[in-house]
Amino acid sequence: MAVARPAGDIIIGVGLAVGAALVAFAIIPVWVEPVPHAIGWYQSPRLLPWLSTAVTGLLGIVIACRGWLRDERDAMPVASGAKPAAALRAVAMITLAIVVICLLANATGMAASGAIVCVGLMLFGGERRPMVLIVAGVAVPISLIELLRIVGSVPMPVGPFGF
Amino acid sequence: MDVIAIGLSTLADPVNVLMLALGTAIGIVIGAIPGLSATMAVALALPFTFAMTPVAAMLLLVGIYKGGIFGGSATAILIKSPGTPASAATVLDGYPLARKGRGRAALEMALYASVIADFISNLSLLIFAGMLAKLASQFGPPQYFWLIVFSLTVVISVSGESLLKGLASAAIGLLISAVGLDILHGTQRMTFGYAALFDGVALVPFIIGLFAIPEVMAYYAERGGRRLDVTPTAGPRLMLAELRQSLVTIIKGSLIGVVIGALPGTGSTAAAFVSYGEARRSSPRGHHFGTGELEGVAASESGNNGVAGASMIPLLTLGIPGDTVTAVMLGAFLIHGMTPGPLLFQDHLPFIYALFISIMFSSLVLLALGQLAIRGGSWIATVPRHLLVPLILLLCIVGSFAVNNSFFDVGVMAAAGILGFLFTSGGIPLAPCVIGLVLGNLLEDNFRRTMLLGRGEFGLFFAHPVCWVFMALTLLSVGFGLYQQWRPRRPRDIN
Asked: In this complex, is the C-beta atom of B182 within 8 Å of any C-beta atom belonging to chain A?
């Protein structure tokens, strides 16, 4: 993977701190039921969520402060060297691919929906040879899923074609 | 003797041998593809073990783990890109050897060192696991609490370059572990009204999403990444004299791997570098290390493979995963209705012996398949990514669905994937999050039980010598980890 400058530590730290604040003030009070009859503080169901959120928030502040004090050029390289727009596009595309498979699976079967998405992604990846698309994009996913369904006894939605 | 006979009969079952071989082959192939790790391969294979017997399932996963670590060395030697972090030290001498035309000898040295280390590591598992399980069966909640605190120090070693980000990742893992019904009161915690979250976030889909989906997203974000300069595996073979010359280094590296692997909180990457450093210090040819020395490859590979068997010791005996791969394997035990820990040795003794004996056999399987892989080493590294990545995505979806036949789990996988992608984009390590998720409930449960037993006082936490031992180990581990993180870097380290 390409080595590139990281997203700034300030952004990461602020993101962690804001996320922790959201969990602490919007999620825990609403979505973690209190237990009125709990005898000690250690019995509270909110103990672990509170502690872990507080630690995340504090670490976020420390990371942001460190990023503020340190020259960004000294920051460490990270794995992904993608530009933000490309990264967002990739996240949206993969999420869409997952949603498409989930929506189609009950109607067409897991194997067929998987093949549709695989062919789409391979076309997006630059593959244009029909034989390669048929073998790698259709035959391999269908064989793989059928192998898992029949030999591996993994229950999977089956479509009108019997696979 | 009966259990040993059962163990041997298990090994005679062709399905088990087939699963071990299949797992090793899959592991070698995936480990040899840069960017795909052994952890990811084990996580992807996990849901497909449902229909298997527990022994066959574990052998498939153990095979993938071991094959993955060896496979990682192939790309380290041939394309200067370690397939797994554990093979990073192998690059130092492996790649220069390949450039000198001794790629094949380097691969063979890596294989033989891996197999010898793997055998020694498996032997240690066989010898020490039972003893430790017997000791652990006497632990109560305070002892377990400190043991888990000690195990959490693994976060320091898996945090990579940034300890602060690693700790934040672990804290997020702990927070996610709180999702579900409260253990003491049965009240809902962050379930958002979804019944599917009452038992907590499904571990397997979460791990698949966290490790595999970011790789898929990164591929499409970078559209192909860099081209690979693959060195062919041609050249003279390894000579027996060369292997004999490195034998002491291999045995020393194996023992270093065993000790490091048996301790939660270190892992195979650290073992490889410690072993490499020790060999460079003690070898008469130490000053040649880094320029293409076969002994350097032997040191690194024996160190990282020495960990494989030994890292199963804390998992099987204490129920504590020592590294990320064993954290994933914990999921496999849970899928098959078994909880690792001292009780496993009481309730499932035949299974344990069957597993141990089969694992011993895995060294031979690795030797045989490794020989084949050396011939196809260059080819594996050049599998077209644009054809492979969609299939990996499909496996992620199918695997997550298969856990509970639920598309909700596919959603969990997708959410974990986005979280993982955000983490990797921001340089936040993924492994501490999994460690936090796996250990969070155990930590909370044992803390609250100890407090209840102590009627709200902290005294019980310090009342037993075993607690003192774990406290001391925790302090030592934290101290050593912090020293490793913040010690002044020498120019040679930076280079």
From this structure: yes
Q: B-chain residues within 8 Å CB-CB of A137? A: 387, 390
**Strand partners for A78:** A4
Q: Which of A22, A27, A91 best probes binding to B when mutated, by most B CB atoms within 10 angstroms?
A: A91
Instruction: Taking residues B45-70, report their average pLDDT.
Output: 85
For residues B78 and A69, give the distance between their C-alpha atoms in angstroms, rounded to a whole number: 41
At residue B229 the predicted structure's pLDDT band, cuts being 50, 70 and 90, is low
User: Does B452 contact A at CB distance below 8 Å?
Assistant: yes
User: C-alpha distances in angstroms, B33 versus B45, B151, B227?
Assistant: 16, 30, 13
Between chain A and chain B, the number of residue pairs with CB atoms below 8 A apart is: 231
- CB nearest A52 (choices: B171, B192, B447): B171
- Residues belonging to chain A: 163
**Residue B427 contacts A where some CB pair is shorter than 8 Å:** yes
Token pair of A85, please?
A: 């727009």
Structure letter (DSSP) for residue B51? T
Q: How far is residue B134's CA from residue B126's CA, in Å, rounded to a whole number?
A: 14
Nearest to B447 by CA among B181, B156, B169, B174: B174
CA B204 to chain centre: 15
Beta bridge partners of A158: A109
- Helix, coil or strand: residue A32: strand
CB proximity list for A47: less than 8 A, separation 6 or greater: A41, B444, B448
State the smallest CA–CA distance between residue B406 and chain A in angstroms: 10
Question: What would the mean pLDDT of B446-472 be, rounded to a whole number?
Answer: 91
* Assigned token pair, A116: 């549709």
- Name the one residue in this structure whose structure tokens are 């209190």: A34
State the pLDDT confidence band at B492, using cuts at 50, 70 and 90: very low
Q: Which residues of B142-163 are buried (b: 16+ CB within 10 A; e: fewer)?
A: bbbbbbbbbbbbbbbbbbbebb
Tell me if chain A has a CB within 8 Å of the CB of B47: yes
In whole angstroms, what is the distance from residue B402 CA to residue B400 CA? Answer: 5
Closest by alpha carbon to B399, among A27, A65, A145? Answer: A145
Distance between B252 CA and the closest CA of chain A, angstroms:
33
State residue A132's pLDDT score. 92
Q: Residue window 109-128, chain A: list those with CB within 8 Å of chain B.
A: 110, 114, 117-118, 121-122, 124-127
ipTM score here? Answer: 0.90
